[in-house]
Amino acid sequence: MSLIKQLWIAIILVLSIAFGGSMVVSVLSARHYLEQQLQVKNIDNANALALSLTQLKKDEVMVGLLVAAQFDVGHYRFIRIVSPTGQTLVERVAANLKPAAPDWFVKLIPIRTTPGQALIQDGWSQYGTLTLASHDSYAYQSLWDGTLELLLWFVFGAAITGMVGTLLMRSITRPLGEVVGQAQAIAERRFLTITEPRTPELKSVAHAMNVMVDRLKAMFNDEAARLETLRKKVNHDAVTGLSSRDYFLSHLREAVQGDQFDSLGTLVLVRLPDLDDLNAHLGRQQTDALLKDVAHELAQSGANRIGQRAGRIKGAEFAIVCPSLASATEAAHDIHERLTQNLLPKWRDRVPDLFHISAVRYHHDQNLSELLARADETLAQAASLGPNSWHAVEDSTAKAALPAEQWRALLTEAVAGGRLALSFYPVMSGDGTNPMHQEGMLRLKLDAAGSLLSAGDFMPMAAQLNLTAPIDLGVVKLAIEHLRSTAGDIAVNLSAATVANFGFRHELIQLLKTYPEVCQRLLIEVPEYGVFKQFEAFRDLAHQLKQLGCRVGVEYFGQSFAESGKLADLGLDYIKVHPSYIRDIANNEGNQEFLKGLCKVAHAIGITVVAQGVENQADLPLLAALGFDGVTGPGVK
Amino acid sequence: MLVAATFAAPDLDKTQALAQQRYGARAAETVAAWRQLMEESRALTDQDKLTKVNTFFNRRMLFVDDIIVWRQKDYWATPLEFIGRGAGDCEDFTIAKYMTLQMLGIGNEHLRLIYIRAKSGSRASFAHMVLGYYPQPTDEPLILDNLISSVRPASQRPDLVPVFSFNNDGLWVGGAATSAADPTVRLSRWRNVLERMRQDGL
Predict the structure, then answer these.
(1) How much of chain B, in percent, has pLDDT values that exceed 70?
(2) Contact (CB, 8 A) for A185 and A571
(3) How far apart are CA A579 and CA A556, in angstroms?
(4) pTM of whole model > 0.95?
(5) Which CATH number does the domain housing residue B141 bear?
(6) B11 lies in which domain range?
(7) Per residue in A356-366, pLDDT tens?
(8) How far is CA A158 from CA A20, A42, A155, in A?
(9) Rounded to the nearest 5°, which phi and psi values hold at A426?
(10) Chain B within 8 Å of A123 (Cβ-Cβ)?
(11) Which of A139, A365, A498, B179 has the greatest number of CB atoms lying within 10 Å of its CB?
(12) What average pLDDT does range A1-28 have in this prediction?
């Protein structure tokens, strides 16, 4: 039984005992008083009547009259005179007057009085014994009325006390509720602190929990910072802070081949003069300063574009992948402008031929080495154009882009006409033996023949056209249908763009509420950049989904690691680690150490960790050893 | 009858001890003599009991007005108080005789305390009290009076006019009415003296 219920029962019990007890006492004392009064009246009246009868001549009519007179004007149940031989001489009995009190009351609290008795003399001889009893119906009535009045006060008092009690209870239990809420939140892995209540007992509980949460958060943040340092060291170039060659290439591959970005993007190369020449010409220190300046500009250029990343791929060669820029010319021009304006004035005196820029467009699933080779070729063409020049090639082999209006029609029709489909890929336990759940990837059936477009081919366009919300709803509907017909758990992805859409969140929750039975088996994940771009919206969504019983996860985790401290109080169920960390893990000891630490921290707050994009089945034992709970990717069957 | 139950087991040892304690050795002796009288009379006829009891009190006790003995105009003494002082007025004699006869097994239906208007040669009429004994309810009573030594039938007492009679019938019918806690007891002179007697061990 809840504490509040128990408190209420205690209050009601105490009230009943207090009021009930005082009621019983006052009813009983009233009864005692009435009994005494009736008794005294009986005795006194019997004696007074006997005294006056003794003085009379014992004429039968006279005695009868006197008794009648007394009886008629008084309040008697009966008056009787019995001769010494036991013969009734005079008797007057009142009709049985029913008391106004109910029978059960009369039976429960009877008023016991004895008739008064006195002797009548006739000279020396005895005339008779006089017995009389007063009416007690009025006594019952006044006792009953008094009891009713008391009861009324009792009810009134109880109502007042109840109201005051409710208010008191509310103010007493409010802090209790907060403490309980915190405990529940912690159980759901949302690590919240609350303001400590003023009640000392609760205060110490809340204080202890706050301290624990703070310590946990501090530990989490420390660990996250340590891991971040490690991650940077492993994956970033020491001089420029840009991605190292391996890390950049892994990211590039993800951008070109993964589902995460637009099907069209641009790769930009920036080449400075040969590093040895620079060193000889400028000296080591100045060369490093130059590299840093370049790196700074390149990093700046991608600050506002999703997925854009710069890396140092050779001594004095940089590459930038711009998944959100489909025009190579625009990309090359942007970077050229930056370098010309911000860098050239400073270095032109010493290095007149500072850089060449090339940009090539790529399309989804393009071969990487071919892409890099083409970028190199273009760079050579740029070099031929003179110092500090650029050259861009819009790839003629790319699929002809459909005009936006046509896309809109296609996508709208797809949602309405049920042309969306899910392809399922298994997510297995860390050692690759047991299925954890199936991840449903969105596909669009382009035509009746059944050729499928992957999400990367049309979702960027859908985002531009503001159509992700209906598509995501369609995805969840498909998942629900699937869950209702088959066993097992299913994970689906929501687009980054939809999370911020309040209308979508509302519709999604309403939809799930109509199928409460499948929520336990539904996992909903959002890409990391979608989480941090609109964090409050995601927090709200995660909270509501968790209340329905769904599990919530973050996919492509690890790119914005510095912000991941925020995730501690969300109550996340799992994270799927970005494929760029997983690829070629066997040969990357730095990443191994990083991932091991990541798994440890995640496990400390109860989050399951899944490796995404596992290509090689041989990696599975290593991943399991690092602490991964699950694996998924082309290498996982 | 409850009255019988009330007086069935008088604690006379307590009465005697109280007499010793409150009034001294002489009073205790009188109580002892009183107890002996009761022991001796138990087997006698009612008539002989009346004579013995009447003689015992009339001989041993002085007839003195309340105002002298108790410094009150009218005080009803219990038998213990009466014996302790060795003196009392007509009510005290009557009550003591009434109680003694009851303890000797004479039922309430035979006994009446009777208010009397009395005349004696020299004095004008005065208020008096005697104990009446009715052998049968319809009979003429025998009168136990402290003014004369012998027990005589009412017809031989032309000096006495009965006014009103009573005994303790009907007073103890309810359980609560016997309790000293009942404040109404103290308000009636008669019920009051009966209650005090109980406390004296009678």
Answers:
(1) 88
(2) yes
(3) 7
(4) no
(5) 3.10.620.30
(6) 2-199
(7) 999 998 887 78
(8) 11, 41, 5
(9) -75, 145
(10) yes
(11) A498
(12) 85
